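Input for the complex:
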Amino acid sequence: MSTKDFSYDNTNIPSGEDAVVAIVVAEWNAEITNALLNGAVSTLKKNKVAEEDILIYRVPGTFELTHAAKQILKYNFADAVIVLGVVIQGETRHFDFICQGVTQGITQLNIEYDEPVIFGVLTTNNMEQARDRAGGRLGNKGSEAAIAALKMIDFNLDISEDE
Ligand code: DLZ
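Predicted:
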């Protein structure tokens, strides 16, 4: 994967050695969410997160991502949580409710807990746009979520060292 596949600066990714990363994946639209998961896992491994330190959990849909992330944060065993889902507008009248619910829920967790929750939820107009962002022509947003997780873990380490 080249640098242009990422929206972030991917030339300076912190090492994930010793990091524990939990990933919660929605089953809804599994073709897309599994592609996002593959992107996230391979990017974490490429950046030295040990396989046994990548903890994967599945939930029925995007709406359940907030609850699962909260449980993980409550038991405090991960340095970051990545949530992966996709909501496709054309397929659901619930689009706005699910998107608002998960966005606000994950934002609230980021305020309440010390460990970051990384938002890897696609909200697209159709399947083609989702495929484009799940390993297609616009890269893999799961990989980007993994980079964001590593950067935020590093950020927290920096902050705690400054104390
Ligand atoms: C019910 C529903 C619908 C209509 N659409 C989606 C979707 O596009 N993406 C997704 O991840 N989940 C969807 N769901 C399921 C909800 O996220 C949730 O699982 C149910 O409302 C049960 O709480």
